[in-house]
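Repro:
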Amino acid sequence: MAERGIIRSMDHHQLTLLAQQIKFWAAELGLHGVGITDCDLSMAETELLNWLAQGYHGEMDYMAKHGTKRTRPAELVPGTVRVISLRLNYLPPDARDSWEVMNDPQAAFISRYALGRDYHKVMRTHLQKLAERIQAAVGEFNYRVFTDSAPVMEVALATKAGLGWRGKHTLLLNREAGSWFFLGEIYTDLPLPVDEPVSAHCGVCQACIDICPTQAIVAPYELDARRCISYLTIEHSGAIPVELRPLMGNRIYGCDDCQLICPWNRFAQTSSSADFTVRNGLDSVQLVALLAWTEAEFDQRLQGSAIRRIGHERWLRNIAVALGNAPASAEIMTALKSRAEHPSEIVREHVQWALSQHQV
């Protein structure tokens, strides 16, 4: 095990070789892209403050409460001078076609990232293994790994690290992989050479803006989360605004429309990881069947899934809205009435709205 003094004495050539090794090790561990950047996020900080000032974050108070730790990595992890940004493909190869599901109003559409195992656990495991590989080579060094788990500007860091560019839908886009991937970071005190950003390639295309069901992308690169279906079905804890409910269709957990329409996702790569294969048939399941799940069934079937984080109440709320948007049938009416006296006021209110959609 090397001493920290040896690390500090590494010259530029040695650090360049180490950066190359890190990228090789990451590929060996199953990660699909690696970039290294410094900690200057001053432009992203200005954009974030403007976004927060507009109130676009809705109930996501955590976006504001950490102050400048989100945009100044060394304040979150003292001593940080570099961020290693990584991506991991998640698109399940065996999932039912997304458009086909959304065109089947009695089926439930669930964002493709949530069909398999909880990505937090999968990505964190990959990042930790990579950090340990680095440590085995250079000795003790300061680091922390993150994947959507702390005040970290993932897209801004990945953009600076050259993993892609920020699309007009605000997600990261990569010429070879589209946008169907997770991001993760290793904050470190290793003074590695940084990678160059890549140029943006959205051009005049605004397909993602045009297709958004709720028009949540209010301008290029500007998302009003309060209108976003992903926010409404996952982050939002209360009643879904009545005017937005009919626009949600059968999307009960997340929304992929802006990614599905993006021309760059013609080049998207499916995941080869068993972690992201479809579980519980969630790529092609009937809404009525999901509404019948008890809380115990919800917890048991979705153990190890990111979906479990929203809890049974929001799950039922979201499904009730989707059933309100589905064509009326005796089966749907019976299913909704079975939840009409649910203990949760939120569930009852959305069930009543759904029932009212089918009254003539």
